[in-house]
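Quick start: read one record
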Amino acid sequence: MIANVLSLVADSGPTVHIAPGAVWQLGGLTITNSILYGWICIVAIGAFLIWVAHQVTIKPKGGVVQYVEVAVSFITDLVEGAFDDEKIGRKYVPYFVTLFFFILLNNWLGLLPIVGEGFKAGSLPLLRPFTGDLDGTLALGLVTMLLVYVASVRESGGPVHYIKHFFVGNPLNPIFLLVGILEMLTDLTRVISLSLRLFLNVTIGEILIAVFSYLGHIAAPLTALPFTLLEVAVDALQAYIFTILAVMYLAVAVNGANDHSDDLTEDTLPETIEVTHGEAISG
């Protein structure tokens, strides 16, 4: 009996689309359902944040504007506090705030009923979450890490100072050289780790909601509701994790490069000579 029920569920189970599907051709480019929804989300997110910006006043407001202000303040403090020099972090606050809201709202917009099986283009969903597409999260991770690398080199004073932060000691020492090379290779894997973490969490949540919606049949909204609410929290957590990791990658590179800048400057050299000379006289 149980075997028959399980076979029935297996034969007519929920439809889960992991890979994006092509919805039409634009010139020589294939537009997938995740790219299409990503464009829609960009327009919606941009319009929403512009509206919020026009609602901000000196006197705090309630409602959704207040929550956006709290989130912006939280990310701002997070970025500035990660750097030894807050002025450096302040320059990159707009990017990391944008990154956080882009991921967060893309994740949440992917939970709307119109996404997935809500609308079909043939046998494929017309819309899929942008962050539920590995190509989308890879692009997001690549753009983020490119900015981190460019900013790290610039803030560190050049490529040489940036590379030096990978080495804990003299690179002429074979052990330190090997450790530094391994650190550099590990650094290159960050694009993949950022992308896979976001993609897998969004996709697994999508699968869970689809499965429990199918099991609920008529009561699908009730059976899927707990997992939908859980996914709302998970999506916010993943947006935070993606952002904080990107911030720390940049901060570690900049702070580490500054720590290696221990050469004497023209301003400190005369002072050192003067103190030493004074001690010699007093002696």
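The first strand starts at residue 22 and ends at 26.
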